[in-house]
# Entry
Amino acid sequence: MRNLFCSMKKIKQKFFSLAVLMIACLLAACGDNSSSPSDEVASSSSAEGTSSEGNINPLGGSSSATNVPKNYQDPFTFFTMPASTGLVVTPDEDGFYDMGDVYKAVPKSSKIAFVIRHSKRYKSTGVESQLTPIGEQMAKDLGAKLKSDEKFHYASTNFVRTRKTAELIAEARGEKAEVETWDGIDGAYFLTVPSDTLDALMGKSGGSPKYIARYSYDAFSSTNAADQKAQPCFYEDFFARGNQFVNEVIVANMPKWERVSILVSHDVLVEPLIAFVSNRTINLKSFESPFHWVNYLSGIVVIVDEQDKITALPVKGDTVGWMIPSQEVKEE
# Structure
């Protein structure tokens, strides 16, 4: 059934592309050049990813992003080194930049959006999973790092743990947050199937985190049966999707937000984003030893300066950017 699903999906994509081409040809023949081809991205996860009112739909609609820079360095459409745009900030030995350091280093004339994983939570799954006491303190500590008189914009997914993380960061900054629920940062952004579907398919082969990491680092084996089961059609094109996220999901929406935004999501989104903006140089390879997975409050920052130059960097909100889940402190 899985192979049939993959085959049918590819056939549908081919017919869709052919239909678009035929329509374009018909319009050209009629002399109608008043509109350009759509930037719409076909994704089976779009049903779960419709953006909130007032935001550009990152999973389905055409992009109205402006000032998207030229291809600065293949395969990126933005800068990945702070010195390229004059920022004075230094990464740690793992390659992560501290969120507090970044916030202080970025000029007031630039806009900033942090996209991070939620804080530490109890192991129960689902929308209602709560932050642990340690997780609550971690979020407050991050808020203290970012403390200022400046008003921030906050958004999260519809999960209790992501919303609470945003609220506690705001509280520690001295403000009461109105946290927007926004599907633009849905965890399944890099997937062509819902994340629950991947969990069900790969649960007996090491779990979906292992295979999201393999995807993020282009590390599927051509001889491993489980790898081949996970590989064919469950993931978007890695670099194309990453560039789309930075430009169409974040940069295009920045004008609607405050100068600084905190966007709280999940590891299934943040793991690929960190691998992407670091060009796979940061080790979050949970399929290798030592086991590294994205830590709570780690993610990326997108910075747009007054000349519309875009920089994206991997960031950490805790003391380190990676974690080993088996070594976490257990909380009742």
